[in-house]
């Protein structure tokens, strides 16, 4: 019988600060043309224990009885396959901080796979060479046995680990046993803001290594923009020859060769197919020539400063977690390219290696980040931070080396990042020094040290616009080194829930100041987990004792990869072609850094009231980067109807590209020709009592006592009344640590979600019905004097609302408009901004036009329900039997639930359609900002509580069904 002490020794590696033992040195990732490989992905046998030492290691012996074990798919996380459950924390460690110790309760998964070698697998004796077993990613610590022999153990979850296994292999019945511990010393280095998901979540592969195989090599492919030549040198562990047929290159490894080339850039990702041939194998190369440099304080590629229009990408799939397949990765890349994204920070670990192949091929700049974050130490003033403790330095250097060695041959990788939010310390310096020495051809990034001691770029996250502008103008403080470096916002525009707002304002700054080389939106995709009852689950949904809720859903894509309005907005804001103009001409500016505009063509449409009257194409000169040209538009068609006219001009792909088909819209602009035409209505009808307490004014039926509108023509309504509340967004609520004023909590404290409507007077004069009210929350002297004035020309009904704040309002209003209920509505048509939602600081992508939708499709499915779906700049809308015109415009929102229900919901599945469709016809809305982790909306987007007035005109549509059905809802206009 083994003693507890013996067991503890047997699992000592789990809490050992070392990176592991028994693994091979890190090396480049490549696929050989010749050497065989065997994927060990698939169904494995699996057994879960509560502690690291609950079971002895006899399971690793061939012949072990696995009856009663479960089946598990590898790659995969066991907690997403019915064994245990995921945990989400942002930065807090979900275990006591006592490095390098981890809890005794340490879920441990024993994985077993029996495999035969394919018939043509070379017998070791035949070629005298071996084989390696490669794990591309295992969280967080594994010990591995093959055929009963312990190979070693490793940590570094999102990094490759290889073992030499040649002599151990048998033709058949090989037993591969892997013991995976959820928690290990390595967990202290992996405190990224994401789900904790243990398991073998990337590929497991057996690779044959013939005698004289390449093993490791480093492709150096630089470009000299002054003379258009590229220089290639491939350093290989094992000497051989390098050929690139298209360039006539045929040289020995280690020897540089310079020839004229087409360079690689993210915009024009030119790759040359080459081959490295050693004695034992041929390895296909994809060579991209480019030179990354700091020149005159700027990051340049091939001599040109680059503007990064980037995103932070965690690996995510709503069912499979971080176990991504190639098609999902490709989908990410295609979505990025189609949305004008040109850069990715692989937050906060090296991605699956195939992702970088896609970045090379389709063209994306990559900041490749090491698998390192120790953010939880901030809770204790960074005491005991592993990056400042020499005992951990070997583990840090191991992580740096595994990142750089694996990914060094990717032209897309232009910066290495040491990690994320790990404080400061000697370990980071050691990593930076090692990387600079190993690969001087790229720059080093790290945000966490604001002195920039170890880095080549000054990087910050979530700096507000004013600070970014100061930095752009060189007015920032800090060390001289930082001030001399180019600036990146490695994270900004927190895309949690509705938002991010303020993107266009950041982009204007980036484009105005050379030193600001762009940023990376946080983040690419919501990490919601598909859940049978909740739709998508987030932190806390698995009963975690510590969690950070829906902070894990802060992406530009919903968990199912549907683009959110934030991504549409980002695409518009970063579009590489600016299209502006005045009547008669259009100005086109090339905002690419490298590409001319020859890949695009220009289309135009002349539209009146949103209907296209004429359309065509315009010749687009192949403008070079930063060039601009004015082009004449054709004469407007002489027979065009009267109305609000504009030109819509689009730059579209002239032919198919690998990432989007011909015709794909890259950029667009609208050039107004004439003004909005507000509805004109002469008040001729008189308010007329009809007995039974009913008052009629034109098509409007009112309750004579309360002045509440009950129907418009045959359309019954829940009377409109002032509405200032919205279901607070994640950005309204803000993050708890935000020093600035967070309006969501302030609004709630003030009671804006529970205002009452006091009826003061109902007056009718010759041509108007006037209802006077005061709208105010309990326990406050703040109020909004609100007057509703109704007039009619007999066919239509005009409502004019005047609002006068009373008291000392120190906060803006969430919204200012009316809410009205309809008994039914489905199809919606409008002339205004669309097709998606738009708020004051998220409206760049709203295109003025005629749009159609349904009430259900107007909803934006934020994982945690919140204010959403407003269509901006609406001139008129038709739905539910009504036509509603703005004077001149309004924001339109329609829902099958109330704001109160939306506000109370925690998941989409909490919302069920009621009998009433609620319309919000808003005069104005408060901005969105990104205060869930950044600055709130800029002051111009605040909806100040000021005297305001607005008008809407209602009329029944001819097709209105006869006989009103009464919608259900709160009684109108009574307090
Ligand atoms: C940053 C961090 C990210 C993420 C983000 C908020 O501080 O680097 O990993 O936590 O905030 O979503």
From TrEMBL:
Q: Name one Pfam family in it.
A: Glyco_hydro_2_N
Q: Report keywords, A-Z.
A: Glycosidase, Hydrolase
Q: Which reaction does it catalyse?
A: Hydrolysis of terminal non-reducing beta-D-galactose residues in beta-D-galactosides
Compositionally biased residues, Low complexity: 1-12
Q: Where is this region: Disordered?
A: 1-32, 956-975
Q: Which superkingdom heads the taxonomic lineage of this protein's source?
A: Bacteria
* Protein family (similarity comment): Belongs to the glycosyl hydrolase 2 family.
Q: What is this protein called?
A: Beta-galactosidase
User: What is the originating organism of this protein?
Assistant: Streptomyces pyxinicus
Q: What is the lineage of its organism?
A: Bacteria, Bacillati, Actinomycetota, Actinomycetes, Kitasatosporales
């Amino acid at each position: 019988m083994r003693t507890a002490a013996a067991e503890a020794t047997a699992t000592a590696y789990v809490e050992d600060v070392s990176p592991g033992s028994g693994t091979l040195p890190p090396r480049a990732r490549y696929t050989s043309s010749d050497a065989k490989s065997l994927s060990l992905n698939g169904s494995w046998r699996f057994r879960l224990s509560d502690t690291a030492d609950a079971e002895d290691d006899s399971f690793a012996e061939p012949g072990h009885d696995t009856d009663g074990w479960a089946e598990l798919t590898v790659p995969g996380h066991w907690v997403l396959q019915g064994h245990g459950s995921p945990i989400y924390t942002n930065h807090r460690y979900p275990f006591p901080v006592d490095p390098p110790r981890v809890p005794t309760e340490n879920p441990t998964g024993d994985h077993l796979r029996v495999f035969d070698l394919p018939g043509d697998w070379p017998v070791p004796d035949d070629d005298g060479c071996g084989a390696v077993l490669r794990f591309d990613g295992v969280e967080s610590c594994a010990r591995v046995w093959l055929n009963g022999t312990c190979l070693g153990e490793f940590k570094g979850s999102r990094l490759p680990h290889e073992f030499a296994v040649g002599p151990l292999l048998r033709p058949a019945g090989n037993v591969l046993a892997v013991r995976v511990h959820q928690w290990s010393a390595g967990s202290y280095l992996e405190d990224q803001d994401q789900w904790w998901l243990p398991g073998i979540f990337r590929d497991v592969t057996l690779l044959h290594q013939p005698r004289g195989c390449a093993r490791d090599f480093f492709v150096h492919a630089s470009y000299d923009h002054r003379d258009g030549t590229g220089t290639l040198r491939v350093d290989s562990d094992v000497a051989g020859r390098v050929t690139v047929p298209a360039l006539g290159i045929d040289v020995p490894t280690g020897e540089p060769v310079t020839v004229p080339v087409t360079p690689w850039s993210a915009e024009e990702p030119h790759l040359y197919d080459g081959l490295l041939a050693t004695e034992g194998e041929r390895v296909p190369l994809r060579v991209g020539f480019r030179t990354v440099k700091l020149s005159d304080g700027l990051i340049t590629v091939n001599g040109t400063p680059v503007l990064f229009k980037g995103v932070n990408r965690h690996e995510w799939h709503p069912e499979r977690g971080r176990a991504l397949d190639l098609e999902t990765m490709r989908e990410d890349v295609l979505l990025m390219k189609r949305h004008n994204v040109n850069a990715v920070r692989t937050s906060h670990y090296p991605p699956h290696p195939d992702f970088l192949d896609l970045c090379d091929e389709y063209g994306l700049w990559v900041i490749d980040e090491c698998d390192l974050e120790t953010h939880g130490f901030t809770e204790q003033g960074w005491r005991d931070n592993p990056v400042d403790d020499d005992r951990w330095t070997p583990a840090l250097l191991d992580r740096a080396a595994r990142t750089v060695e694996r990914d060094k041959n990717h032209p897309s990788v232009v910066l290495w990042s040491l990690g994320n939010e790990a404080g400061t310390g000697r370990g980071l310096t050691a990593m930076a020094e090692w990387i600079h020495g190993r690969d001087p051809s790229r720059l080093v990034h790290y945000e966490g040290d604001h002195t920039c001691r170890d880095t080549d770029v000054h990087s910050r996250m979530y700096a507000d616009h004013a600070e970014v502008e100061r930095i752009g103008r060189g007015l920032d403080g800090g060390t001289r080194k930082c001030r001399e470096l180019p600036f990146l916002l490695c994270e900004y525009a927190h895309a949690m829930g509705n938002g991010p707002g303020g993107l266009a304002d950041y982009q204007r700054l980036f484009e105005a100041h050379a030193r600001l080389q762009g940023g990376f939106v946080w983040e690419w995709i919501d990490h919601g987990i598909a859940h049978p009852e909740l739709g998508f689950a987030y932190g806390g949904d698995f009963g975690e004792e510590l969690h950070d809720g829906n902070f894990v859903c802060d992406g530009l894509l919903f968990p199912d990869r549907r683009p959110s309005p934030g991504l549409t907005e980002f695409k518009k804001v970063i579009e590489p072609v600016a299209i502006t103009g005045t009547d008669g001409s259009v100005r086109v500016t090339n905002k690419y850094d490298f590409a001319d505009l020859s890949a695009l063509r220009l289309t135009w449409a002349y539209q009146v009231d949103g209907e296209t009257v004429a359309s065509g194409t315009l010749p687009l000169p192949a403008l070079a980067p930063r060039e601009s040209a004015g082009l004449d538009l054709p004469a407007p068609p002489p027979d065009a109807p009267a109305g609000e006219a504009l030109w819509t001009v689009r730059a579209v792909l002239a032919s198919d590209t690998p990432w989007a088909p011909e015709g794909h819209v890259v950029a667009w602009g609208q050039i107004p020709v004439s003004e909005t035409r507000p509805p004109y209505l002469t008040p001729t009808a008189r308010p007329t009592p009809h007995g039974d307490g009913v008052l009629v004014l034109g098509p409007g039926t009112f309750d004579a006592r309360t002045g509440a509108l009950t129907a418009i023509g045959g359309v019954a309504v829940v009377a409109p009344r002032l509405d200032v509340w919205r279901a607070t967004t994640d950005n309204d609520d803000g993050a708890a640590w935000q020093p600035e004023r967070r309006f969501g909590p302030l609004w709630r404290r003030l009671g804006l979600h529970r205002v009452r409507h006091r009826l003061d007077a109902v007056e009718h004069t010759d041509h108007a019905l006037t209802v006077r009210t005061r709208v105010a929350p309990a326990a406050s002297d703040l109020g909004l004097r609100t007057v509703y004035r109704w007039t009619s020309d007999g066919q239509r009904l005009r409502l004019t609302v005047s609002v006068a704040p009373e008291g000392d309002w120190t906060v803006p209003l969430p919204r200012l408009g009316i809410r009205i209920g309809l008994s039914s509505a489905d199809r919606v048509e409008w002339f205004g901004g669309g097709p998606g939602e738009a708020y004051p600081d998220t409206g760049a992508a709203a295109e003025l036009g005629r749009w159609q939708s349904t009430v259900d499709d107007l909803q934006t499915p934020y994982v945690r329900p919140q204010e959403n779906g407003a269509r901006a700049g609406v001139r008129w809308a038709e739905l539910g039997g009504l036509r509603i015109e703005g004077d001149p415009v309004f924001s339109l929102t329609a829902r099958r639930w109330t704001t109160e229900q939306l506000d109370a919901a925690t998941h989409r599945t909490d919302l069920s359609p009621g009998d009433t469709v609620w319309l919000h016809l808003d005069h104005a809305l408060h901005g969105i900002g990104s205060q869930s982790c950044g600055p709130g909306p800029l002051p111009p987007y605040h909806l100040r509580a000021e005297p305001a007035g607005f008008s809407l005109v209602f009329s029944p549509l001819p097709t209105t069904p006869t006989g009103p059905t009464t919608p259900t809802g709160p009684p109108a206009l009574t307090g």
